[in-house]
Amino acid sequence: MRLPSLDGWRAVAISVVLLDHVNYTRGAVVPAWWKQAFQGNLGVRVFFVISGLLITYLLLTEADRRGHASLGAFYVRRALRIFPVYFLYVAALAALVAAGLYSDATSSWIGTLTFRRDLIGRGNSVTVHYWSLAVEEQFYMVWPALLVGLSLWKRPRLAAALLLVPILVCPILRSGAIQARWPNPFVLRALGSFSIALYADSLAIGCLGAFLYRAYGGTGRRFASAGALVFALAVFVAAMAVDDGRFGAMGAALLPPVEAAAMMGAIWVTIERRSGVVYKFLNAGPVVWLGTLSYSLYVWQQLFLAHFAGPALARLVIYDWRVWWLAALTAACLSYYLVERPVLRIRDRLRDRQGL
Hints:
globular, mainly alpha, 356 residues
């Protein structure tokens, strides 16, 4: 059931996010090249592609084995995956507020508790990173329902047509044309920089990749060559390198799906081609461990960024740029081993009962 290399790619994604966030730690002086090399939004985009691929792959696998996929079971598994660590972090913040060590806007709490953090709440907050989780959950309120309700595992062409909608529409929304034509607060908020309208194409490309893998996986191994991997990574790096504002609205609109598609190609090659330096790196023990820890680490790292934590917390020694990552890693390990992993065992037992 587990696809190889995915934990390795998660490790790469969370590393990019953390290296980008060094800029928000106390005492850090980050050069311009560092900001260009480590772009947190690219790390999040990789997470989106992986998430779309894996969630769709699991639903397709369930449908192929049982003749149908259970939407209820999917949402139970999803809740067990996301909610425990998500709300543990919220509880920790509430404790810090009660202790007078942190404060946040009411809108931030509302956005966090309703999975609308991409739309609601202030930017300078230790819950601002929850925008990405909000985007994912909103997407998965729609896509699995369509996949199951329309039996898309039997209709791959219809599935592709539906997935092409966000892939084609998101660049238009990112271009700013809609915002310029109707510049009212609601439109600007709905199409803001963290909106699902700007990131749904990355998730959709991952979902489309699952259908392609289902159709051509195994038989397509002859195409999963070292050259194909180099090409995919080269396209990704090239798109990343020019995604620095030099092409203005056009670049912001068109480059993200190129990056997502290139990453989907690289992921596919490293699933199919189980040899080579890149495959061995992605599946090495320490890299897999970091990838396994990536969700907890993503959630907790934000708390240790001085820029967002506020003056009461930021003066603590653990917020220094040299050691903040140790505090984040420690919190993530405690969260993973004491909460996330025990709950995942429950989820896996439920999945085993379904014969998956």
